[in-house]
Amino acid sequence: MIYDFVFFLLAGGAVLGALMMVTRKNPVSAVIFLVAVFFCSSGLFLMLDAHYIAVINVILYGGAIMVLFLFVIMLLNLGHADWRDLRGPFGGLIGGAISVAFLALIVRNVIGGAGSIAPEPAGEALRAATRAQGIVGVVARPLFGDYVIVLQVTGILLLAAIVGTIVLARWRPL
Amino acid sequence: MSDGAALSVLGTPGAVALMVSAILFAIGVLGVLLRRNAIIVFMCVELMLNAVNLTLVAFARAYGTTGHILVFFVMAVAAAEAAVGLAIIIAVFRHYEVVDLDRFHLLKW
Lengths: 174, 109
Prior knowledge:
The complex is a heterodimer.
Chain A: H1 2-23, H2 27-47, H3 51-75, H4 89-112, H5 114-117, H6 124-133, H7 135-143, H8 148-169
Chain B: H1 3-11, H2 13-34, H3 38-63, H4 66-96
Helix pairs in contact in B: 2-3, 3-4
């Protein structure tokens, strides 16, 4: 089916882009591949009925945060591929072993917990809520209702991040 | 687990998304452990956050929109974390003129 084909295409693109990102020497190419990963995962969000999340994923991650990374790379003049920064064979072996063990642990838990997660109602309730409240309303209604305190705390966190960034990035300390 | 359970896990899009997010998270861990460039390590952390978002969205399909709210907050925290982390990298770069994580050993035993 076309849905399955596109879904596996996006999933494969995300995994491939992530692998390319980890192995690129040039930080700028790594950023570009990470943007590709974010676009693929936005497509996956769309296919999983999370339309609003897909849009803000592209705007916030693919747009804002990655531009911030590119900006810092440009500012520090690091956009050259002259530094092979992979760790040696020993470190690589240990890192690969840890991540493969981690993956095995997660996959084992996902398959082991099949009874509790597999019988999803195919997002039917989610689609009904989207039809009733709109794409933004599905997220905005709980956000400004049940979770409004958390939203305020997030605002304070962002304010603290702004102040901290300005203090850290000053040329002369205060 | 038997083959039937594995097949049922791979049957639904949400379960495939869980697998993909597990793989993406493992690749992010690999990058954090494997690279010395502080900026690329930081990008791998962002990749891990994105993998977690994919997990939350996949579960939201079965359990309601609370997962979407969590993804929203994860993204807000990720934006704050990226700004502060990059400012730290710039501040460290001014001192050492490198972004090699092996050269930062002031707090290492």
